[in-house]
Amino acid sequence: MTDTNIHCDDDSKFPSHAWPGGYPIIYYTADGGILCPRCTNGENGSEASVRLDAPPDWRIVGADIYWEGPPLQCDHCNAEIESAYGNPGSEEE
What we know:
Layout: E1 17-18, E2 23-29, E3 34-35, H1 37-40, E4 60-65, E5 72-73, E6 80-81
Antiparallel strand pairs: 1-2, 2-3, 2-4, 5-6
């Protein structure tokens, strides 16, 4: 996790991708969970928040670009989060 200064975009939403480049962003909770941008924005019934009094499983504490690796799963909605450059350990060409 590299960014603890989490910023919303112009629509007061947490971005799904970093610009320029369109790199996918993942969000970390205080208990070590990973949330997709939709759940970070309170969609899908999520109670995610940056408030310090939020429960650890919902308190957003950081964000990072997911550069490479196998797809991750959002800990709330189970959505698959693809990395920007794929999985270097896969057999795909």
